[in-house]
Each structure stands twice: as structure tokens, then as C-alpha cells.
Amino acid sequence: MNHNHYNSRLRNTARKLRNESVSLAEKILWRNVLSRSQTGHSFKRQRPIDKYIVDFFSASVGLIIEIDGNSHVQKGREDKERQLRLEELGYMLLRFSEEEVLRDIESVKMRIAHALNCL
Fold it and tell me: Does position 74 have pLDDT exceeding 70, yes or no?
């Protein structure tokens, strides 16, 4: 059985993130783009994978979607290392800034649809 590198040690932290610190951009993306009825795929929020907790994850296609807020400005190197590790595990990552999601959700939606069609 494939568990998609699920890290159960991070389960409580992920649950806390899902319930207490969801950004507006994440809420908008979750409600308006990532429903199974719109994408045809199931996405999980705040999913523990390896030593990371990713914003959104679809196991059926191995797609991770990350929303980068203001805190990511200082995390360039960390984000790059994180992305490389997740790609080594076989996942595809899409990154969007909070501003991109808030200002141009249709473009974000199209890029996600394209990625899903390619996978």
C-alpha cells in the first residue's frame, strides 16, 4: 500500500494548521478551485509529507500546491530545498503567491487545470 510518504508524527501539527492558521488565499483556493467536482481529483489540506506539511495535496496525481505568503520572502533557500526534496519523492509542485490567488484566481485555476490534465 502506498502512503505517499505520509508522516504521522506531523498529524497534530497539520490538524492545528488546518483549523487555526488558514490564510484567506488558502480558503479561496480550497472553496473555489480545489473541490472534487471542479477538478475531478481529491485534494487534502495541510498534508504531512516526509518532513514537511504541504498546503494542498492530490495523491491520485501526485500534485502539491503551495501558497506562498509574506513569510516566504525570507525563506527562498528553504523553499527551494523543500521543493527539490518533494520533487525527488516524485511529486509535482505548483507555487502561487497569496497575491496571485487573491487578484487573479481565474489564472490560478487555469494553471491548476493544465497541470492536472498533464498529469
Answer: no
Question: CATH no. for residue 78?
Answer: 3.40.960.10
72 is a domain residue? yes
Residue 3 in any domain: the answer is no
The parent domain of residue 73 ranges over 8-118
**pLDDT tens, position by position, 54-65:** 999 999 999 999
Our count of domains for the chain comes to 1
Quick check: is 2 in a domain?
A: no
Per-residue pLDDT band for 22 (boundaries 50, 70, 90) equals confident
pLDDT of residue 1: 44
| C-alpha distance from residue 8 to each of 11, 58, 84, 88 (Å) | 5, 17, 21, 20
Any domain includes 1: no
Q: What angle, 0 to 180 degrees and rounded to 10, lies between the N-to-C axes of helices 105-118 and 24-32?
A: 60
- Residue 70, burial from CB neighbour count under 10 angstroms (0-12, 13-18, 19+): exposed
pTM of the model: 0.89
- Quick check: helix, strand or coil at residue 115? helix
